[in-house]
Records
---
Amino acid sequence: MISFEEAVKTILENTKTVGLEKVFLNEALGRVLAEDIYADRDNPPADNSGMDGFAVRYEDIKGATEEAPAVLQIIAESKAGGELVKVEPKTAAYIYTGGLIPEGADTVVQKELTKVEDGKVFIFQELPKGSNIRPQGGDYRKGDLLIKAGTLLRPPEIGILSSVNRPTVYVYQRPRVAVLTTGDEILDVGEPVEKLSQIRTSNTYSLYAQIIEAGGIPVIIGFSKDTPEDTERKLSYAKSCDVLLTTGGVSVGEYDLVKDFVVKVLGVDILFWKVRQKPGKPVAFGVWGEDRRKLFFGIPGNPVASMVVFENMVKPALRKMQGLSRVFNPVVKAKLAGGYRRKKGERVEFIRVALELADEGFVARPFGKQGSNILTGMVFAHGFGIIDVGVTEVKDGEYIKVVIFDKSFMDGVFDG
Ligand code: AMP
Ligand code: MG
């Protein structure tokens, strides 16, 4: 059995990026940029004003005071979007934020420091030369590299793309991720319960939602019974996808057919099965398809195992497929409230914890029941506290690392 680290390394080493597509700017949020973006012009394109006031020549306001103000004839006006105007010695121009600095002017005096009378402006103090001018190219120069390929597009990047006149942009495609739900006992949402032993699926739809959060396109290819015929038929529906996720049927039970049939039907090359982790030990991983570009994850059926395996193993792969260089969930250190004990330390364990921000930093509270079938522990949690291999006890107040899958505990710091 391999370690968690070896498993993740194997996954990422075998994960290749998907193709590119061109999208409109309004659809680019959350996508990963696949080209470098350069500036098409200087920004600002010319010197302009950072204030409403008067554009003057520094020479003309030098030495001005309350008692002996500079008095300048107003001869022009410069508004944002207006024409380039000119000032002569002993004259000034009205100027507004964003207005071009007139020819001959080198300083802007804000309105509050002036008084206007009979077409003249009175300026009551000297300002340093160049005051309130936003210089040409002060933000960036034509030809500068503004956003690198591989960047996740957030609202600021979208703003830059629009300001450099890019109505469309190349991004990585979203990987298509097939989900096959297996198990004789499993019911889809909406199906009537006929027997006490039947279980309503949670994995199908928690995986669906996790795929969307990870930037993929989920494709529910069906529910298969634990029979060779049904497993074979439903697996064949995965052929057009980039990634196949199956849930259930990867442990050693008699009816666990998935591993054998992905090999037979899709030609998957299984690279590992079973990882020294809890939950999620019986996870399987492989590659298949042309150039071995497609991935297979055989995810265990227990609902918590399914979600944990997705966050720690599938999500990084989906992010890498989309060209991202930073693929893992964020990790913070937190004080473990109440401590944690276990009998054996052979496997790394991911315990469900809720996080709070206290004066001393993050505090992690473990959910009372840590079984891999306890889905309510996931509802309670924001992250997985890592109990490392070899560790059987963490004392109350000791620090552990927490992998965050839900950042909502950080919402509303200003809400009181
Ligand atoms: P398996 O991995 O198929 O041995 O399943 C392990 C446990 O997870 C069993 O108790 C299953 O009933 C349960 N399980 C399997 N698939 C699902 C699912 N889609 N939703 C909820 N529970 C499941
Ligand atoms: Mg099963």
Note: The longest strand covers residues 348-358.
---
Amino acid sequence: MAKLSLVVPVYNEQDTVALFYDAIEKERKNFSNYELEYWYVDDGSSDKTLERVEQLAQKDNNIHYVSFSRNFGKESALYAGLEHATGDFVAVMDVDLQDPPELLNEMLEGVSSGEWDAVGARRTTRDGEPLIRSWFSKLFYKLINSMSDTHIVEGARDFRVMSRQMVDAILSMKEYNRFSKGIFSWVGFKQKYLEYENKDRVAGNTSWSFFGLLKYSIEGFIDFSRAPLLIVSVLGSLAFVMAIIGAVLVFVRALIHPNVSAFGWPSLVVIMLALGGIQLLSLGIVGRYISNIYLESKRRPIYIARKVK
Ligand code: UDP
Ligand code: MG
């Protein structure tokens, strides 16, 4: 019998852990011809999440978990889950039931038939989300897809069922700075997305703040595009061209008004500020790439487990 592993990252989700389990067990009849194992990954929760998972694990032998020594972030949790999953097919799901379990069966059929290596889910609406957040997210997909060779599917969730082969490919990417949306796409393979309408969490709160999301998007750019570096070079070249034009103008003006030696202090200040700004911005962008090299070169582990069962 083929086996399906469910990888579920959980961070301060004491209220949703059991609800998720119940929802999957209810859906279970639709794929009862598969063995099922759960891999909850407790991402260093500070509430009773781990306790709740342990309670479930006592009831059901198919429930396993990895518990981190601290909060490492969802990307690390996903990696740990994939690493421990033993299934022929692996599903990645959020615990808050924003990823509808009803889609699991169709995803599984798509992958197990061999037609697809991964079937994911993509939300077509963003109801229930602050407008400004949707707007920024649209902008993010537009920008990153115009700058990166790796196509990032708009609205795609991490929710997906993957073949063993694809999971192994993802695990072979050992990078420390992980941006799953990019990694899922970078590995290639045949992938399909089912569309569905956005759902609210069953309980608890999202752990993403606006700035958290902003940082996450910047990480995406740095990890999957070198275009920002090109932009820096273009800005530098433009400034240089303008400097030459300026020099010519100054020279010509000196020929026309040979007796006036000082012209345009205010404009000089503006130019200095503009150039200083461009330089600092460029330094910042280059710095982000260097800091990623720095982190990669330390070869720190992607996560540290405190408990595995
Ligand atoms: N999560 C995690 N580590 C974190 C933040 C979130 O493992 O540092 C998990 C969380 O428990 C949930 C999933 O990632 O299962 C998605 O988180 P959330 O619902 O907060 O994000 P959203 O759905 O708002 O994008
Ligand atoms: Mg959620």
Note: The mean pLDDT is 90.
